[in-house]
């Protein structure tokens, strides 16, 4: 603490933008003034990139806060939050920066606003180093809504690297309090489906090749299940630029969801794209957890805010998750414990993440 500001070291652990997202969201929710130093010190281009800055500006605007040091390349910011309000908020990375990462920082905040919110997020919908918007809709949304809230996600236009140009509108109403979750029963895989897409100048054959390669790869390991991956060409009026990729989702008998995804790029064989996504999905299914590696860290802030004990069974704890836990504990009164699973059927890489949430209450409702 420096005076009354919470000091955050943005270079520890994962050392990237996630530290900024978790700590500024919690600062906004808890009314804690914040100083973040050494922003993204662990990255090849340290400091704020356009997507981090647009996320910070959106948080500042939705709580009438004050942001100092908000420039591209800045390695230190101070943020003083005000009161969270609903209404329409716009964030535009003006690059292919991920709209899904913008959503990650804003969503916990607007849940505790005084009135409903509409977030207009502009940038990349299917970007490297971030969840694809399809993952947000197909996996993140159904699971995160178990905390007892709902949101609507309208994909207006898809945008790809390097220009971005996508737009997604997210609408949600505030809640009084979040319920804890229990995601510990894995169940058996009942369904595997997905979409392989091309947009812009690329032929539909690429999507078909990605889908076929992914199906072949999955069948080697899971032979008895129908795998339905649809090849699609994004309509020209709903996509900006040229892009391709695939997402595959596995559903289980207990409602768990797992995914694998991959993006195409110049010089990358379309079979390779399909196989990469299939192998990622199979890896997520092998570890015996009830969530995949990419949902793991996204649940942490909600577990910390919820009222009561949340339990999640997962595969190996990622560095992103360890980082999210570290900062959630530093800023809230939530406590986390991570233990190795001794359950029958668990692999050596299966863990339980348990959290006694702080029981955040929306004082505006």
Structural notes for this entry:
α2 (50-62) runs parallel beside α3 (99-110). The protein is an alpha/beta fold. β5, α3 and β6 (117-123) form a beta-alpha-beta unit. The chain has helices at 17-30, 50-62, 99-110, 133-144, 204-221, 270-286, 293-305, 319-331; strands spanning 6-9, 34-37, 66-68, 77-80, 87-92, 117-123, 151-159, 166-172, 182-183, 189-199, 227-233, 239-240, 243-252, 257-263, 309-314, 335-340, 351-356. The longest helix is centred in the middle third of the chain and has 18 residues, at 204-221. The protein is globular. The relative contact order is 0.13. The strands form four sheets. The protein has a five-stranded mixed sheet with strand order 5-6-8-7-12. It has a four-stranded mixed sheet with strand order 1-2-4-3, with helices on one face. Strands 9-15-17-16 form a four-stranded mixed sheet, covered by helices on one side. It is built from eight helices and 17 strands.
**Largest beta sheet: strand ordering:** 5-6-8-7-12
Task: Count every beta strand, where a strand is a DSSP E run of 2 or more residues.
Answer: 17
What is the mean pLDDT? 96
Q: In terms of quaternary structure, what is this?
A: single chain
Gross morphology is globular
How many helices? The count is: 8
Alpha-carbon Rg, integer? 20 Å
- Largest pleated sheet: 5 strands, mixed
Q: In percent terms, what proportion of residues is strand?
A: 25-35%
What series of H and E elements makes up the topology?
EHEHEEEHEHEEEEHEEEEHHEHEE
How helix-rich are the residues, as a percent range? Answer: 25-40%
The N- to C-terminal Cα distance equals 31 Å
> What is the structural class?
alpha/beta
Unreliable sequence segments: none
């Amino acid at each position: 603490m420096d005076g009354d500001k919470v000091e955050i070291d943005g270079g520890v652990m994962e050392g990237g933008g996630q530290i900024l997202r978790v700590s500024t969201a919690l600062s906004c929710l808890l009314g804690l003034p914040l100083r973040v130093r050494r922003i993204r010190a662990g990255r090849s281009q340290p400091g704020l990139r356009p997507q981090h800055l647009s996320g910070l500006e959106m948080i500042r605007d939705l709580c009438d806060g004050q942001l100092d040091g908000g420039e591209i390349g800045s390695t230190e910011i101070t943020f003083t939050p005000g009161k969270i309000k609903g209404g329409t908020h716009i964030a535009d990375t003006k690059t292919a920066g991920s709209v899904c990462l913008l959503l990650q920082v804003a969503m916990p905040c607007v849940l505790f606003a005084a009135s409903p919110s509409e977030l207009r997020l502009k940038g990349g919908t299917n970007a490297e180093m971030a969840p694809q918007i399809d993952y947000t809709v197909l996996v993140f949304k159904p699971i995160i809504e178990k905390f007892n809230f709902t949101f609507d996600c309208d994909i207006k236009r898809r945008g790809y690297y390097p220009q971005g140009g996508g737009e997604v509108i997210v609408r949600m109403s505030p809640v009084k309090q979040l319920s804890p979750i229990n995601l510990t029963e894995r169940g058996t895989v009942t369904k595997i489906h997905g979409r392989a897409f091309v947009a812009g100048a690329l032929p539909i054959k690429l999507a078909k090749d990605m889908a076929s390669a992914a199906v072949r790869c999955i069948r080697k390991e899971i032979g008895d299940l129908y795998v339905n991956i649809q090849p699609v060409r994004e309509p020209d009026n709903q996509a900006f630029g040229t892009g391709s990729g695939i997402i595959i989702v596995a559903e289980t008998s207990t409602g768990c969801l797992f995914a694998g995804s991959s993006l195409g790029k110049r010089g990358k064989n379309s079979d390779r794209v399909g196989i990469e996504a299939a192998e990622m999905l199979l890896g997520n299914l092998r570890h015996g957890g009830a969530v995949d590696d990419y949902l793991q860290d996204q649940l942490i802030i909600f577990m910390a805010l919820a009222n009561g004990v949340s339990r999640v069974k997962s595969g190996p704890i990622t560095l992103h998750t360890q980082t999210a836990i570290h900062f959630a504990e530093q800023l809230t009164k939530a406590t986390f414990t991570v233990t190795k699973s001794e359950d029958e059927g668990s692999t050596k890489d299966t863990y339980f993440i348990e959290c006694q949430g702080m029981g955040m209450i929306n004082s505006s409702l």
